[in-house]
Every structure is written in structure tokens, then in C-alpha cells.
Design a protein that fits this description.
Layout (H helix, E strand, L loop, with lengths): L2 E3 L7 E3 L11 H7 L4 H35 L3 H29 L1 H20 L4 H27 L4 H29 L5 E4 L3 E4 H20 L6 H6 L3 H16 L28 H15 L4 H39 L7 H4 L10 H5 L8 H28 L1 H17 L7 H29 L2 H32 L2 H17 L13
Antiparallel strand pairs: 1-2, 3-4
Helix pairs in contact: 2-3, 2-5, 2-6, 2-7, 2-11, 3-5, 3-10, 3-17, 4-5, 4-7, 5-17, 6-14, 6-16, 10-17, 11-14, 11-15, 11-16, 11-17, 11-18, 14-15, 14-16, 15-16, 15-18, 16-17
């Protein structure tokens, strides 16, 4: 397919593919005819906001906990719970959001879900004790799960098979940008000695302000999606072909600069089934649940049940491996910084330096003497390097995804991530820890994104969001279990945490051999 440059202010790279006009056209033919141009770039720009919001809201506490340890009187186990609690909320709500996304539509779930999440995120930012913080983050997890899942399906359903893998990789880049922005934001706010009271009720510290800034991203996500239409694929599946055609015509006009009347597709195939003919409204909760139960029954039968089980196991294993370490990295770098601060800027074996991560049990006297080392610029530099490496990894993977295919690249990145993260155990300097963790978590993030691509491609539209929701829920279960177990493994010794991370990352690579190839496969 050749790419055509359109001039006079309308120039975009647009796929000059015009399927033969017929009485009825499939979604794949119709979305291909819209080309790729301005409309798609607007979509990619807008989805960058919820991608960043998802990242900062799930990772922000990993930066806050080392700084807020004295203010909140946190033990090592408390830090594990706080790192994990948001994922517990996601697990509880995961399957239900999948039902509602497929029954009620992507857009409404995205808009309302992010606004409600914003309320709880702001509550977490203003809290002054760990109990309230745990509750607020738990509820944030419950409500952020749905809109983030919906954004993935929404984006995929605006693109043809040629571009779906690439735009999903772009989502990974945006999440990595969030990883890049977070240490910069943390460096700009957290070391500041800001302590004041609001109305004599809220004691505000620098970490409260940091959480408040992070909370604003969820509100912005809901706001931006107000201006986007519903997914044309969802509209077709719901029997709303006229609305779907109007969206496709608008895409075509913006991408090509041509009149929407010249759009070669005039009629769309009726995809509606008998139990799916009604227009779903927000108030039809009972109908949505009934439909969700029917679809859950479908996904638990062949051939879908095999791929669902495979997706769940791989997501659980890989994310328990890479995401657990990712969330503990700021604390690990803080421990290294503390060791160097106390030993004339010298490094040592990683196991020796990690002893700084394991504080003594808190009591009244120790709390009075509690202090945080704020001379920790190296923490933010190292986390920035780790985040920047992830962006580079996604850029490189864009080249390899077409060369090797999604399945093969998934296998390679799983094994590579597992080996590198396990090798941290042998590191004898802070520089070695930074390099190994940067490349290891970067390849793990690429593998996570590739697993999402496989799930999106292997399930039909009516089951896609449910399947993705269950996939993501399994991954979050891995994060939950990993973060709860990790501090106890640290108590056992230095080796167990790294063996734990390596074994489960490698298991994902082994089981990825059982996936089917999805290259250039039409969206079902």
C-alpha cells in the first residue's frame, strides 16, 4: 500500500486504500478506507493522558513511601501493602468493568470512571494517616480499572489490522513517558521542606502536594474523552450502523481532506445478534449484567477458554516479576543512597546496601528520632534512567515487532527481562544495579504490552474488553501478590527476592510458545 501526501494544509500520510464499493462492507474494509492521518494522531495524543494517569496513580506511592515513612510511621510490611492496595481494588472490580464496557460502551465508562477516580485520588492526596491512605487508594483502584481497560479497546477499534499493533505499542511509549515524568516531578516536589496546615485540619507536606498533582491527570483524562465519539466497531456490534458510518466518514474527511460524501463505504455489515439489538443506556444496569453473564459463558468455552487461561497465567507471572521490582526500585535506590550517605559515598554488594531498606520495628522513641535522607538526588536520577530506558526499548521494539512478529518478540523479551532482573543479585555497585534494573524492567514492559496486543487480537469484539479486563486483572493480581510477598522475602535474605522475580518471568516466556500468530489478522 502506498502512502500519499495531501497538500494545502491537509497533508497527512494517508493510506491510499479504497476497497471496492459494495452493498455492505465489513468493519475492516471500512476502517482501512479511512486511512491514517490527523484523526489518528489526535486519538494518540488524547490517549497519552490516561496512559500517564494510569502510570502515575499506580506508581506514585513508590516515590512517596521512602519520604513519608516518618510522617505515616511505616514499616517494611506497610510499604508492601500500600504498594499493592490499589491493585487489590482493580482486581475486585476487574470483571464487572469488562461487562459494563462491552455492554454500555467505551466512552461513557472512560469519562465517568476517570472523574470518579479523580475524587478518590484527591482524597488520598489530602490524607494524614496510613489507614485513610490505604482506603482511598483501594477505591481509586476500583474505579480506575474500567476506564483504562476501555481506552485500550477504544483505541484498537479506531484502527485497521495494519496499525493496531503499532498504536498499542504507542500506548506503551506513553506509559513510559509517564515513567519519565514521574521522577522529574518527584525530584521537583518531594525534597522540598513544605509543611503547613490547611484550616487546622490537614497537615500538608511535600508528598501531599506531589499526590495532588498526580491526581489531576485522572480528571484531565475524563475531560478530554468528552470530545471523542464512541468506537465505530462497538457501534456496529450494537446495531448502530448509521452512527458508526458517521464516525468513519468524519475520520475519512479529517485524514484525507476529502468530502465525507466521497467516502467509498456506503453501507456496513449488520453485526448485531438477536440478544444485542437494544441501544444500551447507562440506566440499563440489569440488562448490562445479563449480557455480561452471557458473554462470560461464551468466553469460558472453546476456543476462547484456552487463550483466556494462557493470557491470565502469562500476565500474572510476568507482571508479578517485573512490576514488583519496578514498584520497589525507588525504595531500593533510596536504600543505596542511604548506605552511600552513611559510608562516605562508597558502594558495596547489593545485599549489604539493601540492609538500609529493612528498618527496625517502630516504637515511640524511634518515631521521635525518625528522619529521612533528603540528600537523595541519585534516587531520582536512577529512576529517570530506568524510565528513559523503557522509552528506548519501546522505540526499538517498534522495529522488531514487524521483523520477528508479536509472539516471537514476546518470548524473547520475557526471557531477557527475567535474566537481567535476576542478575541484580550479583551487582556490586549502584551503577550495576541501575543498568540491570533499567534494561530488565524495560524489556519486561515491552513484553507486558505485547501480551496485551495478543489478547486484543485473539478475541472477538463482543468478548474483547472482557478478555482484556480479565487479562489485566490477572496482571494486577500478580502485582498484589508480589508486593505482599516481597518484604517477607527480604526478611528471609537477599537471594530469595531475585530468584522469585526470575522464575516467574521465565515462566511467561515458556508459556508464550503456545500462542497463535496474529500478524495481519483481521479484527474479529
Amino acid at each position: 500500500m502506498r502512502m500519499q501526501n495531501i497538500e494545502n494544509g491537509e497533508n497527512q500520510n494517508v493510506e491510499d486504500t479504497k476497497p471496492k464499493e459494495s452493498d455492505e462492507s465489513t468493519f475492516e474494509d471500512a476502517i482501512t478506507a479511512t486511512g491514517f492521518g490527523k484523526y489518528n494522531y489526535v486519538l494518540l495524543f488524547i490517549i497519552s493522558v490516561p496512559c500517564i494517569a494510569q502510570l502515575v496513580n499506580t506508581v506514585e506511592l513508590s516515590y512517596v513511601l521512602p519520604v513519608a515513612a516518618c510522617d505515616l510511621d511505616l514499616s517494611l510490611e506497610d510499604k508492601g501493602v500500600l504498594n499493592a492496595v490499589m491493585f487489590a481494588g482493580m482486581i475486585v472490580s476487574g470483571p464487572f468493568w469488562g461487562y459494563f464496557c462491552d455492554a454500555l460502551g467505551r466512552k461513557q465508562i472512560i469519562v465517568y470512571g476517570y472523574f470518579i477516580t479523580g475524587v478518590f485520588a484527591i482524597t488520598a492526596a489530602l490524607c494524614t494517616n496510613k489507614t485513610v491512605l490505604i482506603a482511598a487508594k483501594l477505591l481509586s483502584g476500583v474505579f480506575i480499572n474500567g476506564p483504562f481497560t476501555a481506552t485500550a479497546s477504544h483505541l484498537a477499534e479506531f484502527h485497521s489490522s495494519k496499525y493496531r499493533g503499532k498504536v498499542n505499542m504507542a500506548r506503551g511509549i506513553f506509559i513510559s513517558v509517564g515513567n519519565l515524568l514521574l521522577p522529574v516531578l518527584a525530584w521537583a516536589i518531594l525534597p522540598r521542606k513544605w509543611n503547613f496546615s490547611v484550616f487546622g485540619i490537614f497537615d500538608i507536606h511535600s508528598w501531599n502536594i506531589f499526590l495532588l498533582v498526580c491526581a489531576s491527570t485522572t480528571v484531565l483524562s475524563g475531560f478530554f474523552y468528552i470530545f471523542l465519539p464512541e468506537s465505530p466497531k462497538f457501534l456496529m456490534t450494537s446495531g448502530r450502523n448509521e452512527e458508526a458510518l458517521a464516525v468513519l466518514q468524519k475520520m475519512y474527511k479529517l485524514n484525507t481532506g476529502n468530502s465525507k460524501n466521497t467516502f467509498p463505504i456506503k453501507r456496513l455489515v449488520e453485526e448485531t445478534k438477536d440478544d444485542n439489538t437494544r441501544n444500551n443506556k447507562v440506566g440499563e444496569v440489569g440488562a448490562a449484567l445479563k449480557k455480561g453473564c452471557l458473554e462470560m459463558g461464551n468466553i469460558l468455552h472453546r476456543p476462547h477458554i484456552f487463550y483466556l487461561a494462557l493470557a491470565c497465567f502469562n500476565a500474572f507471572s510476568l507482571i508479578m516479576s517485573s512490576n514488583t521490582l519496578k514498584l520497589w526500585l525507588p525504595g531500593i535506590f533510596q536504600a543505596i543512597s542511604d548506605y552511600q550517605h552513611n559510608h562516605n559515598d562508597t558502594s558495596n554488594d547489593i545485599c549489604i546496601m539493601l540492609e538500609e531498606l529493612n528498618p527496625q520495628s517502630h516504637n515511640d522513641s524511634s518515631l521521635e528520632n525518625c528522619s529521612v535522607n533528603m540528600d537523595n538526588l541519585s534516587v531520582y536520577i536512577n529512576t529517570f534512567i530506568v524510565a528513559a530506558t523503557r522509552i528506548g526499548a519501546f522505540a526499538v521494539s517498534e522495529m522488531f515487532v514487524n521483523l520477528l512478529g508479536v509472539k516471537t518478540l514476546t518470548i524473547v523479551t520475557c526471557f531477557l527481562s527475567s535474566g537481567l532482573l535476576t542478575s541484580i543479585y550479583f551487582a556490586r555497585s549502584s551503577e550495576a544495579v541501575t543498568v540491570l534494573s533499567a534494561i530488565g524492567t524495560a524489556t519486561g514492559s515491552v513484553a507486558e504490552n505485547l501480551l496485551v496486543t495478543l489478547t486484543l487480537e485473539l478475541f472477538p469484539t463482543s468478548l474483547r474488553t472482557i478478555a482484556l479486563s480479565i487479562h489485566l486483572t490477572s496482571g494486577r493480581a500478580g502485582t498484589l501478590v508480589g508486593n505482599i510477598i516481597f518484604p517477607y522475602l527480604l526478611h528471609l535474605g537477599c537471594l530469595p527476592p531475585f530468584v522469585f522475580i526470575g522464575v516467574f518471568g521465565a515462566a511467561c516466556g515458556v508459556f508464550s510458545f503456545f500462542y497463535s500468530s496474529v500478524e495481519n489478522k483481521p479484527l474479529q
